[in-house]
């Protein structure tokens, strides 16, 4: 029995140590979606283009560094007319502010594969402190960081002028993310 445990430990130890630091984002396997209400009806959309710098150490999450840049012009609501409207100055103003940027400031463990993330989110020149929970789901060498980030669109001046009132488009927006990552090549 002791010999079997020793052999298993020797075989599994390199696998466990190898997959603890993730440094490569896999955009084609990742998703960033958002949900909101318009006139009381649930609506959603996605952003199809983002990149960033990613260093996530599951053994020392406090040493992790994460910065994501999301192309606001990559918004996809399923309707070309709505996508074009969102790029206008009243909404994202993507001509003047082409990217939303998230920078993690602290990441702490909340238990096995669970993390509390605090950072800064910048959209449309407005920066706000944010915090949220995330779960790291592993699958072999790859992993997926999954969570939700609730924001208020008014904090970022998304929907100005006649759209600043929240009776048509709600102030609350939930960003759902699933960021696929891998160890460095």
From TrEMBL:
Residues 1-19 form the signal peptide. InterPro entries: Lipid/polyisoprenoid-bd_YceI, TTHA0802/YceI-like_sf. Keywords: Signal. Residues 22-182 form the Lipid/polyisoprenoid-binding YceI-like domain. SMART domains: YceI. SUPFAM superfamilies: YceI-like. The keyword Hydrolase does not apply. Pfam families: YceI. This is YceI family protein. It comes from Alcaligenes endophyticus.
């Amino acid at each position: 029995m002791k010999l079997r445990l020793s052999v298993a430990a020797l075989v599994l130890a390199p696998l466990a140590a190898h997959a603890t630091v993730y440094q490569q984002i896999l955009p084609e396997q990742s998703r960033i979606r958002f949900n909101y209400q318009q006139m009381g009806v649930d609506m959603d959309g996605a952003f199809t283009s983002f990149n960033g710098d990613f260093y996530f150490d599951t053994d020392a999450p406090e040493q992790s560094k994460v910065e994501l840049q999301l192309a606001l012009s990559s918004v996809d609501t399923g309707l070309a007319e709505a996508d074009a409207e969102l790029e206008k100055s009243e909404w994202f103003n993507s001509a003047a502010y082409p990217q939303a940027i998230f920078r993690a400031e602290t990441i702490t463990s909340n238990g096995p594969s669970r993390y509390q993330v605090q950072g800064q989110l910048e959209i449309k020149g407005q920066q706000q402190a944010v915090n949220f929970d995330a779960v790291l789901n592993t699958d072999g060498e790859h992993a997926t960081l999954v969570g939700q980030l609730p924001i208020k669109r008014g904090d970022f001046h998304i929907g100005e002028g006649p759209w600043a009132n929240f009776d048509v488009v709600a102030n609350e927006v939930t960003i759902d993310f699933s960021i696929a990552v891998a160890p460095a090549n």
